[in-house]
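@channel anyone free to eyeball this complex?
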Amino acid sequence: MARFRALYGSTPLHLIALVASLAITFYTALKIAEYDTAPKIALWLVGAALVHDLVLYPLYTLLGLLAGGNRPRRAVNHVRVPALISGLLFLMFVPLICSLAPGSYEGASGLRPEPYLERWLAITAVLFLASGLLYALRARRGAAS
Amino acid sequence: MGARAALVRPPRARLNARTLLSLARLFPKTPPPGPFRPGFWRSPLRGRWLTSTFAVVLLVGVTLVTITGFLSYAAYNPALGTNDLTPNKGLLGFYLFDWPTKPVWLYQVNQGVHVIGGLVLTPVLLAKLWSVIPKLFSWPPFRSPAQALERLSLLALVGGAVFQFATGFMNIAYWYAFPFSFYPAHLYGAWVFTAGFVVHVAIKLPTMRRALRTRRLVDELRVPLDRTQPEERMDAEDELAPVSPAAATLSRRGLLGLVAGSSAVVFVLTAGQTIGGPLTRSVALLAPRGRSYGDGPNDFQVNKPAAAAGVTAEMGGPSYRLELVAGQDGAVVRELSREDLLGLDQYTYELPIACVEGWSTTQTWTGVRLRDLAVLAGVPSAGEMTAQSLQGAGTFATTTFSADQVDAEKSLLALRVNDADLSLDHGFPARIIIPAGPGVHCTKWVSRMTFVA
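replying in thread with the prediction:
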């Protein structure tokens, strides 16, 4: 047992669980391989694993630094919190906000996707306004105490 | 001569299994500069407690989203006719079963949990990825066979998760920019993810439980920014807590609040398309299908208007006949005009139409029971029924229904909705409404029904 651990780096159960898991993944990969688009599906799957760490993370870190996020000032959070929520909504609903597929949206719903840009802008405005108001209230309370 | 002998038999390091499997020796001891150095990651909020807190939420939430996703596939009754959109699934469809017709809201709730659940969990997933990012740059990248295998399965876990969320967002917004078909890709993506997820939970559960005992959530919620301390490293292998933490710029409760608040915002902005009700619908501003069509009896969510399906008013006009066929490749037994159909016993039920994309709408439908049409076709206890739409081509132009779905009390060929004739966009002259079934199986503009014993 100790010898196994020294060689493998963990318990036999760990090995069994991982082999079982990878077997399912491999079987699924074989099923995907039956499609003509298999290389593209595989590329998207692997790309998806890196998109947060190598694209999104550097992006929001950079934006955070630009907002002065490295200095512990409360005001910074009143900018970056609404900015992050707004950015998240943009990321999740970008096809509607930027009208990336007006044809298929209309083909499915019978409606044009135009209002989503205005709606997202309005939501962003409300988020920043609420955050600003909260900051003003806190600043006033801070000054009073 | 002695020097020569040494050349023939050089002194060699003993190469045994242990040194062979110790992968760390393949990499220089000192990590390259940048993110591979532990000092690079300085956030005082990162640590096993924070990661585990997000993990608990994901463990429950993602499990629900995954199960409802797999159930959604079963809801299409893929064993019947040409219903299966992933016919090469093999063993991966081992769990499939006949989809029930009760309770009528089954598919509505299933898809609501799946889609709204996935949307609401997105901030938690991103926060979890943020919290474990130092592990991607762990050095040496491979230490032991155990760790190498684990990293391979993490690729399936993270790749599968982000792939599923991204293709989900795109599909509900009708942005088909992925270079493959959604149905098989989302099903296979789910299996890649699930394989990684289950084993990850099994391996990390003990660490998670230990980490959660290091702090109490209620206590953390009382700590403001100026008293926020970094998490301590739990052991030598802890790669999450920072070695040289920076000063906090956001409290721990601030970060938890940001994540929970983002989830709440996403919920409010989307859930109305599933829950319904004038208030929730009016604030579902980013729901792809939360919008109003007007106040008339036919003013509710349309899936594929007549124009997009290539169906004209003329096709549903006076010349329209519904053909009832008995048996596969059988002859047409009856041809019914819309007036003939209106002359049959009419039943009225309040039933939801629920889409795979998570939106739903409950309306009052009136029409003929499918079981009565089976009797008219001369196949009173039909084993299955295939409905053909006037729309001709298209994935859901033909759908096959199970014996249970044909026989269910509330399964209708609807002719009217909310006391008015169906509009052309909602399937005039006649459409199928199946209780508890997926919306795309509520075939519109039905032109032919084939009953098979």
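from a first look: The two ends of chain A are 64 Å apart (CA to CA).
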